[in-house]
From TrEMBL:
This is SURF1-like protein. It is found in: Cell membrane; Membrane. It comes from the Bacteria. PANTHER family: SURFEIT LOCUS PROTEIN, SURFEIT LOCUS PROTEIN 1. Pfam families: SURF1 (PF02104). It is a multi-pass membrane protein. Belongs to the SURF1 family. The chain crosses the membrane at residues 16-37, 176-194, 214-236. CDD domains: SURF1 (cd06662). Its main location: membrane. Keywords: Cell membrane, Membrane, Transmembrane, Transmembrane helix. It comes from Fluctibacter corallii.
Length: 246
């Protein structure tokens, strides 16, 4: 076997493996781009749903269906007695670059307990300190939006039964918070409507990443997939020419 034949076979194997790797990488990046497009569509549908449902008349807690997915993002009006000694502080909430907490307090209505998210409050400089929260003048009627919290399985660190009140928590886990509270809590949270007179900041963002950002990521993945194919094709072509010259 001649030297040129050996070189040709060696190059052919390298070219084949390079092409296989390029195809796999391109397919992976294309799949990620398609996934980002799907996420953009999901976010667009959610924003459209929120806009449509926010235009409806406020619901009463007594009119809620069993399937709460049907009324998520609906306006809701509740009245009752605040359980002011039981304050949950949702940790690591960011507002305009500042770290703070979201304040959640149960409200009692005919032996039903509903968590109300009153909004964001700034955290003290020291991690050992908790914010000074005055909830003595809370209104007995609250208007807000019905929100279904999603538990993040990646978050394992949270409060425990030995913690004192106010209690710092890492996520809204209704089942766990019900145990700490001592009574079952409704499986949803009321996000209190913005109020200029309130000391709590209420800038709710139900969709953290916009559809436009997902679309931008999709374009980047598709561009990378195309670049991978082009670079590989050019490299193979140059290799073939170089081998022919030899």
């Amino acid at each position: 076997m001649s030297v040129s034949t050996v070189r040709t076979n060696k190059y052919s194997r390298r070219g084949l493996w390079g092409a296989i790797v390029a195809v796999i990488a391109s397919l992976t990046m294309t799949s990620l781009g398609i996934w980002q497009l799907q996420r953009a569509d999901d976010k667009h549908q959610r924003l459209t749903q929120i806009e449509q449902r926010q235009q409806r008349a406020p619901l009463s807690i007594y009119d809620l269906p069993k399937n709460l997915d049907q009324v998520e993002d609906y306006p809701l009006t509740i009245s009752g007695n605040w359980q002011k000694e039981y304050i949950f502080l949702l940790d690591n909430r960011i507002n305009n670059g500042r770290v703070g907490y979201e304040v959640l307090i149960p409200m009692e209505m005919d032996m039903r307990f509903v968590l109300v998210n009153l909004g964001w409050i700034n955290a003290p400089k020291s991690r050992n300190d908790l914010p000074d929260i005055n909830v003595q003048e809370l209104p007995m009627t609250i208007q807000g939006t019905l929100y279904l919290p999603r538990r993040n399985p990646a978050i394992t660190e949270t409060a425990n039964s030995t913690d004192t009140w106010p209690m710092r928590i890492q996520q809204v886990d209704i089942a766990l918070m019900s145990r700490f509270f001592g009574s079952p809590l409704a499986p949803f949270v009321v996000l209190a409507d913005p109020d200029e007179s309130s000391k709590f900041v209420r800038e709710w963002t139900p969709v953290v990443m916009s559809p436009q950002k997902h679309l931008g990521y999709a374009i980047q993945w598709f561009a990378l997939a195309a670049a991978c194919i082009i670079v590989t094709a050019v490299a193979i072509r140059k290799g073939i020419r170089s081998n022919d010259i030899k």
